[in-house]
Specification:
258 residues; alpha+beta; four-stranded mixed sheet; 29% helix; 10% strand
Length: 258
Amino acid sequence: MTDSNKELTIPYIRGIRGNFEDWKEKRYLDIEDWFDAGWDWNKYHPREPFKGQLLLRDNRKPDIKGSNRGTSPTWCAYQKFINELLPHELKVKRGEPLNFYKYCFISELSSYPKPNSRQVTKETLDSINARINNPSGILRQRFFKEFPVIILSCYKYIDWYNIPIMEYFNNPELNLKYEYKGIIVSEERYRGNLKLYQNQYNNSLAKGEFINVHEGMDSNGQKHLLLHTSHFQMKTDTFLKAVVDLVRPLVCFHMNRQ
């Protein structure tokens, strides 16, 4: 990230490096439409990032900023996933503004941006170490451990960067300890090597799609779910449906408690 590419440098400085200050200083009031505000980074708000983005694939070109107000393939998948957990009146239809970030909390294992995740780099490792491997890292804080559902949609980062997720997301304060239940996967090569999580989606996912399932029970008798999955970007409807079906019972339970 250098000044030679202003289109990338400003979002990095404001959206990533400035994220903490934005969360600390900005109130949840009068959040402006990102596009109507002229892409002004001073108007950016982390609670509703890029407010006004629609459930469309972004067709941006260097000389046309957000001409269709679309979003990334990953965020399209997030919205599609959350839609399946929302009542009918809150579901977002194609071409309507996103709302998934009102019903979940998203963050990154690494704050180091790069073109794709298949490149294992020292910079990414250092960032992950700072955020989660370090006992004082932000993702080790109690806030993140108390969610009833945690989804690490980080492909093979767990293996590439040696992240013991059950150790890090166990919660001693709630006497919560996760147990590995198995994997939902299509590839035959996993048979005999990993325990298969038996459900209707085994052997029906596309190549490269997987869901590792971990379950735990806290001291209040409430179930917790920790999933390690493929990236959500450009995955099949079968994959998203499998994740939704795992998550839905816990979401319904917690909604009914409120």
